[in-house]
């Protein structure tokens, strides 16, 4: 790094964060544009301990200032957050910066929340970019309210910066590899009954696919948990596997919003408490799998999940806005005080819909000899089949609605024409299509919100 960087201002506060393991993040900064002094760094977060690459405080300040240069004439809608990605080869770093407007000391300022990583970590970080940005965006939403009320925004930002450091450190050591050997999964067992009951495996894979490939696997035995995690990751893309995490043998990770599959260990009492707020903020609904008691539960479908998520988010921000003092409601508290919306804390339901697609796949894959590449090839063909069915469903809906110009009203015909009359099959293909075309569930089931029970009644009438 260059030694000609400007010295750090003595007014800049710094927090050293104790992170277990090697954290690939060099630092995070919160900076703002001062109309007199120009770019100013308000706070620096840096992981504590030895790092392969070290940045001095002056260098961090220089890099943080770099993200705000040229933003003085920024023109954006009120409340907008611009995401900018800098690769500074001459400094050997990458900077992800979220630019937004906020009030500091009674004046409207352009602010930047940035994370700094070594350029060598670019391939590692890119698959996790969307997860980190979405979590930081919501921290900024709450932080803007805190700033407007004259409270300390640093306390709000720390609540997300620190977990992201912990997430990146855990993914560095326990992320699921791109290439999974089928021998390390349940699909290679000679007798499925020895390690995993057939009905449990069927229900786990089916629900996993119905919830867009997002699952939590909990248990007391790390080997058993990780075996199920690897099995479910076989049904994900390579990029999605990089956003999945194995459990840690000696201690449990915390639940992290945004990961596709994650293994979590129970505590010494045999329990694991999931944080309601973080689970609800996951981009897709989630399947909960307990390998100790062989239970599978799932969240409501995508359109209901998105509806609950948005209502809760608005309720959370509204409640924070109504606070009279900074100590009234800590920014990480689960909000359920709004009389207009009381969230159902029991968000996981039994898997209601059976399917034929996964059932046939499991029955047939275990007819093939283990130890050969036949099962891997058959799995690839099964995933290709689901992808083709999802594309056919999207094309069918496009034609029926003239590419969205008309509402969709022929669900019964779609199920018959595409051979998706079994509800579980429809849910699986719909989930694949949702990832190809976000918002499909909400479009198909109409703007008037239907709860799971109402939706089931509608579907049963066809």
CATH class bucket of the domain at 13-174: Alpha Beta
Helix/strand/pairing class, anyone?
alpha/beta
Quaternary assembly? single chain
Major beta sheet, strand line-up: 1-3-2-6-5-4
Low-pLDDT stretches are: 336-343, 448-453, 455-462
Helical percentage: 40-55%
Q: Please, how many helices?
A: 16
CATH topology of the domain at 13-174: Beta-Lactamase
Roughly how many Å apart are the termini? Answer: 67 Å
Computed CA radius of gyration, to the nearest angstrom: 24 Å
Major beta-sheet overview: 6 strands, mixed
Which architecture of the domain at 13-174 per CATH?
A: 2-Layer Sandwich
Task: Report the β-strand fraction as a percent range.
Answer: 15-25%
InterPro entries: C9orf72
Organism: Anabas testudineus
Pfam family, one: C9orf72-like
GO biological process, one term: autophagy
Ordered list of secondary-structure elements with their pairings:
Blueprint: E1 13-17, E2 27-34, E3 38-47, H1 57-68, E4 82-88, E5 93-104, E6 107-118, H2 122-125, H3 129-148, H4 153-174, H5 192-195, H6 198-210, E7 215-219, H7 222-233, H8 238-241, E8 261-265, H9 276-280, E9 287-290, E10 295-298, H10 302-321, E11 349-350, H11 357-365, H12 374-401, H13 411-417, H14 423-436, H15 440-444, H16 452-460
Parallel strand pairs: 1-3, 7-8, 7-9
Antiparallel strand pairs: 2-3, 2-6, 4-5, 5-6, 9-10, 10-11
Helix pairs in contact: 3-4, 6-11, 6-14, 12-14
């Amino acid at each position: 790094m260059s030694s000609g960087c400007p010295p750090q201002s003595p007014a800049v506060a710094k927090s050293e964060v104790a992170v277990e393991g090697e954290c690939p993040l060099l630092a995070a900064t919160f900076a703002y544009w001062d109309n007199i002094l120009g770019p100013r760094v308000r706070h620096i977060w840096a992981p504590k301990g030895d790092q392969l690459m070290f940045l001095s405080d002056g260098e961090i300040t220089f890099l943080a200032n770099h993200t705000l240069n040229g933003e003085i004439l920024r023109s954006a809608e009120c409340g907008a957050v611009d995401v900018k990605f800098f690769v500074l080869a001459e400094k050997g770093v990458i900077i992800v910066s979220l630019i937004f407007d906020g009030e500091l000391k009674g004046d409207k300022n352009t602010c930047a929340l940035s994370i700094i990583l070594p350029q060598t970590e670019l391939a590692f970080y890119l698959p996790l970019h969307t997860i980190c940005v979405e979590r930081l965006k919501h921290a900024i939403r709450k932080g803007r309210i805190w700033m407007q009320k004259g409270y300390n925004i640093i306390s709000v930002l720390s609540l997300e910066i620190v977990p992201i450091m912990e997430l990146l450190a855990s993914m560095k050591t326990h992320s699921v590899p791109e290439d999974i050997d089928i021998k390390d999964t349940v699909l290679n067992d000679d007798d499925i009954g020895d390690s995993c009951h057939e009905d449990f495996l069927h229900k786990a894979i089916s629900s996993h696919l119905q919830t867009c490939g997002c699952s939590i696997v909990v248990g007391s035995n790390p080997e058993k948990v990780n075996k199920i995690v690897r099995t479910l990751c076989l049904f994900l893309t390579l990029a999605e596997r990089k956003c999945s995490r194995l459990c840690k043998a000696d201690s449990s990770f915390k639940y992290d919003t945004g990961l596709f599959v994650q293994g979590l260990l129970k505590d010494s009492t045999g329990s694991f408490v999931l944080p309601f707020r973080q689970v609800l903020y996951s981009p897709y609904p989630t399947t909960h799998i307990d390998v100790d008691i062989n239970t599978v539960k799932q969240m409501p479908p995508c359109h209901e999940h998105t509806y609950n998520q948005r209502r809760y988010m608005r309720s959370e921000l509204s409640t924070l806005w109504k606070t009279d003092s900074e100590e009234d409601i800590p920014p990480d508290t689960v909000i359920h005080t709004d009389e207009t919306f009381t969230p159902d804390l029991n968000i996981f339901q039994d898997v209601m819909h059976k399917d034929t697609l996964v059932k046939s796949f499991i029955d047939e894959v275990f007819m093939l000899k283990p130890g050969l590449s036949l099962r891997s090839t058959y799995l690839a063909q099964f995933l290709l089949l689901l992808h083709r069915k999802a594309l056919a469903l999207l094309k069918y809906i496009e034609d029926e609605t003239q590419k969205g110009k008309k509402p969709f009203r022929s669900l019964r015909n779609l199920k018959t024409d595409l051979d998706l009359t079994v509800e579980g099959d429809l849910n699986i293909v719909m989930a694949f299509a949702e990832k190809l075309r976000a918002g499909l569930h909400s479009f198909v089931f109409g703007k008037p919100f239907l709860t799971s029970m109402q939706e089931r009644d509608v579907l049963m009438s066809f």
